[in-house]
Amino acid sequence: MNAVQTSLLLDPDFPQLLAELNTAWNDEQQRRRIFREELMPEMKAEFIDGQVIMHSPAMARHILATKHLAVLLNTHVVEHDLGMVTIEKALICLTRNDFEPDIAFFKGFRAANIQPTLMEFPAPDFVVEVLSSGTEAVDRGIKMHDYAKHGIGEYWLVDCKNQLIERYLLKPGTGVYELSAKHECGTEVASSVIEGFRIPVAAIFDEKAQHEALRSMLSRSA
What we know:
The protein is of the alpha+beta class. It is 41% helix and 27% strand. The protein has helices spanning 3-10, 14-38, 60-79, 108-112, 136-140, 142-149, 202-205, 207-221; strands at 45-48, 51-54, 83-87, 91-93, 98-99, 103-107, 120-121, 126-130, 154-159, 164-171, 176-184, 188-190, 198-200.
């Protein structure tokens, strides 16, 4: 039991506080249901800490980095029958929050349970968020915390401005991420969760490098 819980239990007004918290929680969940019902395919929106967060259009470098990495990742996953990759519009529904990560990966057994008509996805095994000035605080804050608490084994932050990848791994038994490494252009980055996935960092940020990495990946599989 943490300090906040202990303080609430020792408060003489605990029953009233509990009732108020239950009311607030039920109200939030009602707003969450409305959010899901009103969410349209063309919208980029998330439900975070009780608030609907609408996202503005992304910069070209953000779009290209997401596309380059998603194509490489999906190619590897399909070639080796490892599971399923989603990009941007998969609504990941966790205990309190609904996120739309830039890229997510589901291992074979989880992917097998995802039906074609599913619109509310469970926690994946691997997540990528491409940083922007408008989302960085959330990507490094509540998303990092929530992804870790829900057992998502690996989390990448893609920094387009500085062209590097921060790779975070879930520390066993803690529900907390540890920074494994920062990978710059000129080096390679590999996944611990997605078996055999290794690419040059430059392939995420440069189209020619991405094409070469993709051709090399396919030739190894031939």
